[in-house]
Amino acid sequence: MSDPAIHPLLQADPERDSDPQESAEWREALASVLHSAGPQRARELMDLLAGIARDPAVGWQPALGTPYVNTVPASRQAPFPGDLAIEERLASLMRWNALAMVVRANQAYGELGGHIASYASAADLFEVGFNHFFRAGGADAAGGDLVFYQPHSAPGVYARAFLEGRLSEADLGSYRQEITAPGRGARGLSSYPHPWLMPDFWQFPTGSMGLGPISSIYQARFMRYLQHRGLQQTAGRRVWGVFGDGEMDEPESMSALTLAAREKLDNLTWVINCNLQRLDGPVRGNGRIIDELEALFAGAGWRVIKLVWGSDWDGLFARDTEGALARAFARTVDGQFQTFAAKDGRYNREQFFGQDPQLAALAQGLTDEQIDRLKRGGHDLVKIHAAYHEALRTVGRPTVILAQTKKGYGMGHAGQGRMTTHQQKKLEREDLIAFRNRFDLPLSDEQAASLAFVRPADDSPELRYLQARRAALGGALPARRGQAAPVAVPPLAAYAGFATQADGKEMSTTMAFVRLLTTLLKDAALGPRVVPIVADEARTFGMANLFKQIGIYSSAGQCYEPEDIGSLMSYREATNGQILEEGISEAGAISSWTAAATSYSAHGQAMLPFYIYYSMFGFQRVGDLIWAAADQRSRGFLLGATAGRTTLGGEGLQHQDGSSLLQAATVPNCRAYDPCFAGEFAVILDHGMRQMLERQEDVFYYVTLMNENYAQPSLPAGVEADVIQGLYRYGTAAVEAPAARVRLLGSGTILREVIAAAELLARDWGVEAEIWSATSFAELARGAREAERWNRLHPEAEPRVSHLLRCLPGDTPVVAASDYVRAWPQLAGVYLDAPFTALGTDGFGRSDTRAALRGFFEVDRQHIVVAALDALRRRGRIDPAVCAQALQRYVLAAEANAPWSV
Ligand SMILES: Cc1ncc(C[n+]2csc(CCOP(=O)(O)OP(=O)(O)O)c2C)c(N)n1
Question: How many A from CA of 140 to the centre of ligand 1?
């Protein structure tokens, strides 16, 4: 047999062998097939036997694991095409500069933080990618690979950009100092990948563990979507993700693995940096994370390539005819492997190779120093290249490379394999000099101790090599583009007349949305760019007719006759289908949305995604993914349907949302609206589309939609700009010689209660009420706080008046009511000069009718009247007796407990 990796497989486990003689015969038979006919024939026979053995009578289940050795054996390894010596020197320089920037920043300001050990373990994995695999799009940034970088390795990526001449020494000296850097003429380097903070550099924000992995899967799938829909040629481009082994514990990391396999995403390659440690300690101290991940990924349908041992081990494996190494690995858990990483060669000789005589014999002839330097797979450029090369040849499946590394590699006693290494950011003089020696860096003792950055001359062999490699791969990475060709938006009047001039027609705002969407889909320019996304709720929102009309995207087309084939709304899957139906995965749906919403940047192709979902399962459920989408400068619409705590009558406390708008308001580039009427919605949609597609502003919209049917009035003329600013005057319930005046604000469905309350105030109490539709308390607050700040900074200038105060000047009491918590209207209320009362749905939801719920939460018309009268009483504008009468009249017995009490 020529293939050393096969030997250990052929050894029987003596402890579990009930008939060693028979086992030996089978083993030899297989060995003989391998010798004479080769591995392909061996696989055929194994398939045959496995088929028989899976018969229930035998009950055999294949183990998903393979021995703890490299999947690509030395004999089948692709030759390394680069200059190994130069690449190793370059990697050493990057390790040093990355370390120096973190240590320097922390010497200057101990509070800045930063990480050395993660990149120290990942440097070689990155470098092989950069030198041989990660393709940039060149001038056409849309053409390259998409690479997700492990966030804590950002210093290494900066260190490379420094050698490439993309960042200066002053920039490296401004790591984690984005605010003060420009004052020094430098560019601040963000802690982790942030497209918002470094917009021409980072593409994908990966700092929150788990979000990079799931996003990368949906990015790879979205590339296929673009291709299948005929929008862009994406074949040949890949998505790479370099992630941590600890990060794989995040539910998001794992939740879409089967989707990637189902969709046959062979354009996706993950490299998992298995340094066996996370922040606190070992990822699986008592097990082996590589084995666990192998079973997980293999079970999910991925190609798994284990990259466990470096080339130095090849000779040991070749000599190990008895399989002693494989057996020793099988006995060794990660906690112990970590200790081996932290200890020196002598310890490893005694404790690992000293386990049995066969192992000891293998180590004979190796010095302690050589044992110390035995590389793990993820530190061997040749082996890494072989694994990546193999991944690229995989057809029909995504690939994961499980690369074993040492955390803090090369940090010596100061960090390698240490429990505390993740947060290590200070190194003593001796440690720095030891690092210099370890990587043979061209630095004097003093230069090492003073953390001098190293950059060879531009015409040095190293830098010429570095630049040539990147030039061959299309240019520098990471690189992000911020613009795409604009897309024309049809005029509002052309498609939204039914909403803006509704003239009392009954419909819900959800129905209005679906009708608007359906029309936009037919627009020649915009239509193909629209990406409707649902998480198994299209029927809930009345979108089932779109199934047939535009089809559900499926890379496999439709391999069955749908049960409802004759129907107008037949469930139609198609390769060029337009709807992304993500099933019950909000995390998946929002990741799809983000991929479409950033297509203008990642693919130079602007798209317009609409993800419609139960509003409760958005910001609350996947808020961190939305935050990442915001950081990624997404453009698109999120639609919180069945919104509000009292519009979704019977559903109760898990479905009824009273806070999504508030959460949306905390996202800087999110525009959050709560329209009551279809016409308002249409205006917001029009404005948003123009802002994102024509003016290319990096904002996205969160808009609530209701499923309650009611009469839709026509939009008053000329209020469009006010709708966008968050407030317009809907009307006044006029009274001749009023007893007092009040202003009522309503948002979403509760505006209708406000309108009714104004009529009651006029009819029953002689109070005149202005009615204001508050389409967005968040936008009102945005305008108000900007004016407030400007005025504070310009005390002697003519003061600016916000839209809020222009609409609501003076001290007429204001009462605002919504289907959300009081904090939503209070966002704006604090900027008023007038007394302000907020009504809302604070507390847990309940199941009951809408009317009962609105009464319970005290946001119905009667409670609004009482609140308005009370506001007037507090200002001495009406008699307290009037309030008491009102309570009696509307039978509003004071409840013992407030609705929010628990
Ligand atoms: C959602 C989230 N939770 C926690 C953290 C804090 N955190 C940062 S790195 C890290 C450990 C990472 O371990 P691993 O993925 O194994 O990567 P390594 O640094 O070991 O290469 C943790 C817990 C985070 N960034 N995001």
Answer: 34
Please report the sign of the dihedral spanned by the C-alpha atoms of residue 533, residue 535, residue 539, residue 540. Answer: negative
Closest CA to 530 of 454, 430, 637: 637
Q: DSSP for 311-363?
A: THHHHHHHH-TT-HHHHHHHH--HHHHHHHHHS-HHHHHHHTGGGSHHHHHHH
Lowest mean pLDDT among 20-24, 232-236, 593-597, 746-750: 20-24
Query: CA geometry: angle at 290 spanning 284 and 296, to 5°?
Result: 100
Range in 110-119, 160-169, 486-495, 608-617 with the lowest mean pLDDT? 110-119
CA of 260 to the centre of ligand 1 (A): 23
- Cα–Cα distance measured from residue 696 to residue 606, given in angstroms and rounded to the nearest whole number: 9
Per-residue confidence (pLDDT) for residue 61, from 0 to 100 = 85
Are 812 and 742 contacting, i.e. CB atoms less than 8 angstroms apart?
yes
Which pLDDT score is estimated for 141?
A: 55
Residue 672's DSSP bridge partners are 702
What atom of ligand 1 comes closest to residue 273's alpha carbon? 21
Beta bridge partners, 552, equal 573, 579
Query: 125 CA distance to ligand 1 centroid (A)?
Result: 18
Confidence of residue 139 (pLDDT cuts 50, 70, 90): low
Work out which ligand 1 atom sits closest to the CA atom of 246. Answer: 16
pLDDT for 3 = 44
Give nearest CA residue, ligand 1 atom 9: 279
pLDDT digit string (tens) for 314-350? 999 999 988 899 999 999 999 999 999 999 999 999 9
H helix count then E strand count, the chain: 37, 20
DSSP letter assigned to residue 806:
H
- Cβ contact 694:486 at 8 Å: yes
CA–centroid distance, 209 to ligand 1, in Å, is 6
Task: Name the closest-CA residue to atom 16, ligand 1.
Answer: 246
Distance of alpha carbon 768 from alpha carbon 771, whole angstroms: 10
How far is 650 from 110, CA to CA, in rounded Å?
54
**How many whole angstroms separate alpha carbon 266 and alpha carbon 73?**
22
For residue 776, pLDDT beyond 50: yes
* pLDDT over 50 (residue 74): yes
Among 395, 370, 473, smallest CA distance to 128 is for: 473
Structure confidence by residue, pLDDT tens digits, 467-485: 999 999 999 999 999 999 9
CA of 249 to the centre of ligand 1 (A): 10
Which atom number of ligand 1 is nearest to the Cα of residue 248?
A: 15
Find the helix or strand (DSSP H, E) in which 226 lies. helix 211-228
Q: Residues lining ligand 1, judged by CB closer than 6 Å?
A: 118, 121, 152, 207-210, 244-247, 273, 275, 277-279, 283, 407, 422
Judge whether 351 and 338 are in contact, CB under 8 Å.
Answer: no
Distances (CA, A) of 608 to 397, 486, 649: 29, 12, 31
Q: In the structure encoding, which two tokens stand for residue 27, read together?
A: 């083993």
DSSP helix/strand/coil, 201: coil
Crossing angle for the helix pair 750-765 and 880-889, to the nearest 10 degrees: 120
Radius of gyration of the CA atoms of the chain, in A: 32
Q: Kindly state the percentage of the chain with pLDDT values over 90.
A: 90
What is the 246 CA–ligand 1 centroid distance (Å)? 7
Q: How do residues 523-568 score in pLDDT, each as one tens digit?
A: 999 999 999 999 999 999 999 999 999 999 999 999 999 999 999 8
Q: What is the pLDDT of residue 893?
A: 67
Q: How far is CA 483 from CA 18, 129, 196, 692, in A?
A: 68, 27, 14, 11
- Whether residue 719 has pLDDT greater than 70: yes
